[in-house]
Structure prediction request, 253 residues.
Amino acid sequence: MFPFTIGDELTATQADLLASINRKELTAGENIDASSAPLAVYLKASDGKVYLTDTDADESTFKFFGFVGQAQNVLANASVVVTTGGILDGFTGMTAGNRMYLGATGGVLGTSPISNQGVEIGFAVSATQLFIFPQQEKKVSGTDSTPSDATTDNNVQTIGFRPRTIFFMINAQDITPDLGRSIGWWHEGTYYALNDSLNGNLVLSQTNAFQSGFADSSIAITFGSITATGFTITYTKGGIQSTTAEVYWLALG
Prediction:
């Protein structure tokens, strides 16, 4: 028979045993003192080290990786054990059943999301124990278009999470011929787009999702205004002819 029933509170030893299968040994990028309570950390892309979360910045919020617990107190560049899932013990003052979010600074938690930077990371099992939510990949697909005119458009795509990568296929036209097509992806601010122009050349772009310029019509398509709930597709048009475009996209978070 399973040793636990609904409503049971795990002992510190039991919680530690369950959490042990979700622990990884990494390198601290700064001094981390979790001797009083576990602290949330993120994995920094540039050096592969862990730092305390901070919702003042995107990477330090949305790259949340887990918690430094077990009363560890480590210096920068030292080894540190990070718990990425399961039930973690050692917190204080939580209310059982509350959903918990990353707090503003220093790896702390809060009971409400920070505006535009809300990351839900678990719920309180008890005053001292937190169940850590797995940070699963999210995905949403959709289509968007700009009307046949010479006006710049900013079309908001609401998807319910902050995208890390957006795959896309684009077809652009003016009144009569195709202006070209594009296929590729956007990843955290950088484009990897293969543009097909009218003369048959394939051009790799890392500055926009699509770019076509002619004497009488032009259009550039970019992704921007990345928020906790979506992104914006901007169609920047020029010339005297009307230009239209269709964008087919898949966003991952």
